[in-house]
Amino acid sequence: MSDDQRFGLARVATLPGPLRLDGGVLLSPVDIAYETYGTLAPDAGNAILVTHALTGDHHLASNHPVTGKPGWWARMVGPGKPIDTNRYFVICANVLGSCMGSSGPASINPATGKPWAMAFPVITIRDMVRAQAMLLDHLGIERLFAIVGGSMGGMQALSWTATFPDRVASAVIIASAARHSAQNIAFHEVGRQAIMADPRWRGGDYYADNDPPTSGLAVARMAAHITYLSEAGLTAKFGRKLQARDAKTFGFDADFQVESYLRHQGLSFVDRFDANSYLYITRALDYFDLAEEHGGMLATAFRGSPTRFCLVSFDTDWLYPTSESRSIVHALNAAGAPASFVELRSPFGHDAFLLESPELDRVMGGFLRAGETR
């Protein structure tokens, strides 16, 4: 296998299913888009599943086909990097409900021959995990050397360890939580309402006209993006700086640099994401409550778990603050599960795990290497 084939091999697996969703619906068939990096060991013992966040995708470390930009975690995954593809076989799967090749509202409903739109069944984080397990079965991977996820990816990693404990040797959960707070849900609802208030949403039935609700989706992205940053980071980068102009007149153009930045984030987002998928995935995030799934006690989700855990938080992350990670660590300790935890310093808020962080690199590399000796 050539180096080009070994790194960033993109595929779509059509799995016959059926996949039983938490809502009781049987989904069949199930398409899962994924990329792989590195070479799978003969015993399949070196597989790492990396799970992505809300607006991420399976283009983990290869150039994105729409934007042309490097993969969302190219700095972390690759030869000689903390998740070293010379040592590990890395899989990243586009989540169920997304719009980058996996089954979701934008994909075709086999019963009608048209896009599912809002007829697509409601999904949960655990449904995403079950779909990923089906993909691993398809790839012949019985047990993961590790699962690694940040933000919503961390929720998937937690759900993996609770749903399929015997299939995960190690788990790295970064900047995440075991459930959403009321504030998290509130921000998501603002975004959903922005989409549904756009006249072009039309109850989700906009695919035939190729006229999606881009205005509403852009506003949803702008609102969410604020939560990914920190006040210190925004102040350092933008402060109250005005755009360069020949003359300053009062108006509603993007006068402040931070306004222009947010508008750019919104406009670039609509080129690669589907509004209905945003509705479905944010709802899945809001429904996630690992304790509720296990009788109201978070520790019960990890009772008897054979998995090693590593949790990482960032001191300026106000979307999933350090207190959320500590709650998970306390539950792991109560369950007797081996767990390590570190809070890292960064001015960049929730997005810190996606940006350059030598400390995170050291934590990641050290934790994974330690797992090789077990």
TrEMBL record:
Localization: Cytoplasm
UniProt pathway annotation: Amino-acid biosynthesis; L-methionine biosynthesis via de novo pathway; O-acetyl-L-homoserine from L-homoserine: step 1/1
EC identifiers of the protein: 2.3.1.31
Active site: S151, D317, H350
Reactions this protein catalyses: L-homoserine + acetyl-CoA = O-acetyl-L-homoserine + CoA
Keyword Cytoplasm: yes
InterPro entries: AB_hydrolase_1, AB_hydrolase_fold, HAT_MetX-like
Residues annotated as binding substrate: R221, D351
A cellular component term, taken from the record's GO annotations: cytoplasm
All copies of domain AB hydrolase-1, residue ranges: 47-356
UniProt keyword terms in alphabetical order: Acyltransferase, Amino-acid biosynthesis, Cytoplasm, Methionine biosynthesis, Transferase
GO terms under biological process: homoserine metabolic process; methionine biosynthetic process
GO molecular function: homoserine O-acetyltransferase activity
Family: Belongs to the AB hydrolase superfamily. MetX family.
Quaternary assembly: Homodimer.
Function statement: Transfers an acetyl group from acetyl-CoA to L-homoserine, forming acetyl-L-homoserine.
Protein name: Homoserine O-acetyltransferase
The organism of origin for this protein: Sphingomonas hengshuiensis
Gene name of the encoded protein: metX
